[in-house]
Amino acid sequence: GENVEQHPSTLSVQEGDSAVIKCTYSDSASNYFPWYKQELGKRPQLIIDIRSNVGEKKDQRIAVTLNKTAKHFSLHITETQPEDSAVYFCAARGYTGRRALTFGSGTRLQVQP
Amino acid sequence: DAGVIQSPRHEVTEMGQEVTLRCKPISGHNSLFWYRQTMMRGLELLIYFNNNVPIDDSGMPEDRFSAKMPNASFSTLKIQPSEPRDSAVYFCASRTQGVPNTEAFFGQGTRLTVV
Questions:
Q1: Residue ranges with strand state E in chain A
Q2: What's the rounded mean pLDDT across residues B50-73?
Q3: Does the distance separating the beta carbons of A46 and B103 come in below 8 Å?
Q4: Phi–psi pair at B86, nearest 5 degrees
Q5: Contact assignment for B56 to A42 by CB distance below 8 Å
Q6: Which one, of B37, B31, B47, lies nearest residue A36 by Cα?
Q7: Record: contact A104-B33, CB cut-off 8 A
Q8: By CB distance 3.0 to 4.6 Å, which of A10, B14, B18, B54 could disulfide with B80?
Q9: Are the C-beta atoms of residues A24 and A5 closer than 8 Å to each other?
Q10: Per DSSP, what are the bridge partners of residue A77?
Q11: Pairing outcome for strands B65-71 and B53-56
């Protein structure tokens, strides 16, 4: 089955700096890669996703890149703000087989004011 | 739409007792997922349903766990008997299967504590 690895487990940045979180996946059939943000005590919520036919997607301060050959994808947050502090999860899902998200282990991002 | 609705939000029970968690998916969604979240193991898929039919229950940890989806608007996850190591946050999520690459929406979760 799919295996998703996520790094780093914790990340501390100064307000205004950029943050990068990286994930790798094992199943070459995976074709959908969402990123979820989870604030303390809350549910995971989608912040951005990318399909396998796209190499990069941007939404304001958030961008995701995908390298299908290397089977890795990354989340980039620019001009970080204290409200970006949360746990971020990457995930992968295929179009066939197990059609449920497999999540990475999460990255706790702390933005220092 | 109210989103995915889970109940109860919090449950504290004694070891050995039966626990039932409930989920109402978003209307029109035909896939439903149960995830468990712990510090040690992160977000783990327990089971998922398509059109009320269980598709993959390989994540269900033991026979003590069972899940049902009697209709398109309701699912339950039951633990009998419960053990302290079952303490976790249990999330239900739903999406529209058959429409490629649509996101899954999560409920607020049920925080289960088994003492």
A1: 4-7, 10-14, 19-25, 30-38, 45-51, 56-59, 62-67, 72-77, 86-94, 102-103, 107-112
A2: 93
A3: yes
A4: -80, -10
A5: no
A6: B37
A7: no
A8: B18
A9: yes
A10: A19, A62
A11: unpaired
